[in-house]
From TrEMBL:
Secretion signal span: 1-20
Family: Belongs to the Skp family.
UniProt cross-references to Pfam families, sorted A to Z: OmpH
Protein name: Molecular chaperone Skp
Keyword field: Signal
Amino acid sequence: MKKITVIILCLMFAATLAQATNFSNIGFIDVQKVFKEYRETDKAQTKLNKQEESFKKEFEKSQEKLEKAEKDGKSKEDLDKMKKEFEEKLAPKRESLLKLNEQLTAKLQLEILDSVKNVAKKVGIDMVLDKQVVITGGMDLTEMVINELNK
């Protein structure tokens, strides 16, 4: 009877050990490096910069008009009215710029996430963490993910 109990305990211990081994398949990536070296990030940034530059020019024009009106001695009420008009005119463009930034960032994040999943699956990794939360151990998948994204 003792022999059976010992065998059962040994099998349970072995099963627990095997299960723990499955969870040791951890990888990590340097998220900032992946974003930086992903070619599409530059394209997205260029697109965003064009819109941002257009917004900036309009904003500067409105500021110049406001300063000119102030120098011309316009009343505080007229200046406040002009400010409000400029803000109302620029608000949709500012919102459009923010929306574009969100869309481009979300697109990049999804592409990176898909690539991370593909690389992890190919290498047999169960869990992928950001490099910043890993103290020791794990497999660095950063370069593999960058290569997957840029191929």
